[in-house]
Structures are given as C-alpha cells and as structure tokens.
Amino acid sequence: MRMLYSEEIPGVGLTKTDHADLAKMILSYKNYRWSYQREWRMFSDQQGKLHYDDRRCVTRVYIGSQALQLRRNIENRLRHLKIKTSVMYLDGYSMIFHPE
Prior knowledge:
- The protein is α/β, with parallel strands linked by helices.
- It has 2 helices and 5 strands, in the order E-H-E-E-H-E-E.
- Strand 4 and strand 5 (94-99) form a beta hairpin.
C-alpha cells in the first residue's frame, strides 16, 4: 500500500469498515514532512505469509528497535534475495539508521 502523507490525522469515527481495512488505512498515513520518502508498506495475513511478485521493487527493509529479536531471521530471509536491511534506533528525539 502506498503511504499517504497529510497534515491531517485520518478520521476513524463510527464506521462499518472492516477492522483489517481500517487498520491498514491508519497504518498507511504519515505526516506530510515525511513525503520525500515515497514509502510503500506491505501487510500480510495473520500467519505472516506475504506474497510479492516483483522483489526488485523492494530496495531496503527497515527493522525497528522493538523488532530486534526477529532481526537475524529477517536478515537471513532477505540476504538470498539481495535486499538490504537497516536497523532504526531512537535516541531521545532523534532517529538513527544503522545500515547492516
């Protein structure tokens, strides 16, 4: 899903929208100041299975500091696909990316 960049927070309110679709919408919004990233996000089913046809479109995967327990597993799976990874760390109000 392509990220949506806006100054406004997405409205949820009372809706009949499917919970999964609602979660995807919320997780696909970022403040307009991040629009230079031109980011896409991928969502998988509850079993974690994800199917993507053209792996050349994925140039890097950023691993959040809360997912470090999964880091080696993620890196091992992406290494044979030649997809780079970076780990994100928070330092106060700064965000630091460490290329791996």
